[in-house]
Write a structure and sequence with these properties.
Blueprint: E1 11-14, E2 20-28, E3 35-42, H1 45-59, H2 73-85, H3 91-109, H4 119-132, H5 147-166, H6 193-205, H7 209-218, H8 222-226, E4 233-234, E5 239-242, E6 245-248, E7 254-257, E8 266-269, H9 272-284, H10 303-317, H11 325-337, H12 342-349, H13 354-360, H14 362-383
Helix pairs in contact: 2-3, 2-5, 3-4, 4-5, 6-7, 6-10, 7-9, 7-11, 11-12, 11-14, 12-13
Amino acid sequence: MAKKRANGEGSIRKRKDGRWEGRYTAGYDAKTGKRIIKNVLGKTQAEVKEKLKKALEECQGVEVSKATDEYTIATWLRTWYELYAKPNVRTATANRYELIIERYTIPRIGTIKLKKLTTRHLQKLYKELLESGRIHVGKNQNKGLSSTTVHSVHLMLHCALDRAVKERLIPRNPCEDCIVPKPRKLEMKILPPEHIKAYLEAAEARGLLPMFYLELVSGLRKGELVALRWDDLDIQGRTISVSKQYVRNPDGSLELTRPKTENSVRLVSIPQTAVDLLIQEHAKHPDSPYMFPSPLTGEMYHPDSVVNLHKKILKDAGLEHLRFHDLRHTFATTALQNGIDVKTVSSMLGHFDAGFTLRTYTHATRQKQDEAAQTMGNFMEQVL
C-alpha cells in the first residue's frame, strides 16, 4: 500500500519486485484536464524519497505542458470553469462565475496569452470595471461596478489562476501582487422594536401579514421565503421545512435550487401565531401548492417583487428605508438580545457555523456580555 504523504508530495510504495517506487503529479493535460503521472525508482525508501523530492523541485515553476502556448485567458477561464468550477459549486455561484468570465473578463483581456498575463493587465482590468464595467446602466446608476463586485472578480480570477499554477501552466499567480479594491461594507440595520407594530399593521393593510410576520420570526432569505410550499409547514410540529430557494440568474431568469449551503437545508421552528396566520393564508387559495402565491400569476412571487412589497410597507408605515435582508438581521439581533443562544440562532438562519453568526452579530452578543459582566459585578459586591 502506498504511503500517504502531504498533498503535492507524491506517494511512495514498495513494489512486488522489492524495489521502491515514488509517484507524483508532473502536470495536467491541457485538453482533458487529467493528471500527468510520473514515477521514480530506487533500492531503498530513502533513495526514492530523495529522488521524489528532486523531481518535484524540478517541476516547480517549470512549464511541464507544451500546450501552455495554446491557452489564452479566454480558453483557460472557460476550461477552468467547465472542469473545476461548474461541477463543484452551487448553481447560483456557477452562474455568477460565468457572468464574470463572459461579460467582465473575456471582452477586456480574453485574447492575452495565459503565460503573458501580468499583474498590470489585471490591475487595468479592475480599474476599467470600477469606471465603466456595468452592463446595464439604470437611471441614477454609476457606470462602474461596485468595489464589492470587482473584489469578487479578483477572487474568482485568483482561484482560476491558482489552478493554472498547479498545472504548471504558469510559474506564479499574477493576482498575488494586485492591489484590490476593498469590498464595500453595508451598514447593518434592523427594524427597531418600537417600529415592528407599525410595520406589521401596514403589511396587514395590504393583505401581506402572514408573509412578513413569518419573515420576522424566522429570518428566512427572500429566495427561501418565496419558494415555500404549503406542504413545507408542519402544523402539529410548528416547523417550516427549508429545502429550496428561488434565485435569479445573471441573465435575469429565475431558477429553483437548493439553498445556499448544506446547513441551509433545515427545519425552522415558528410560534403558534405564525402557524395560525399561515393557515388563514392557505384558506384564501386552498388549491395552490405555494404558501404565498402571487395574486397576479398564481405562481411563486418573484424575489424582487417581495422586495418591492417590503418597500411599500415601509412607506405606508412612514418608516425609513431598510433592506429586505435587514429583516433577517432584525430576527437574529432580536433573538440574541432576548437570550437565545448563538448556536440555536445560527441553525435557524442556516449559517455554516455558529462562529460566523457570532462575528456577524457582535453588536447583539456584546450587549449580552455587558449584561453578564454587570450580573457578575453585582454578585461580587454581595460576596464582598
